[in-house]
Amino acid sequence: MKKKIFVDGSSGTTGLEINERLSKYENIEVIKIDYDKRRDINERQKILNEADLVFLCLPDDAAKESVSLITNPDTKIIDASTAHRTAEGWTYGLPELSSAHKEAIRHSKRVSNPGCHATAFALSVYPLIYHKAMPTDYPVSCQSITGYSGGGKGLIEKYEEKVEGNPYTKAPRPYSLGLNHKHIKEMIMHSGLSQAPVFLPVVADYYKGLAISVPIHTRLLNNKVEGRMLHKLIEEHYKNQHFVKVMPYIDEETLKDSSINSSMPSSGCIFDGAVDITACNNTNMANIFVIGNDAKGIAMILTRLDNLGKGASGAAIQNMNLMLGYDEMLNL
Question: What pTM value is reported for the model?
Answer without folding.
Answer: 0.93
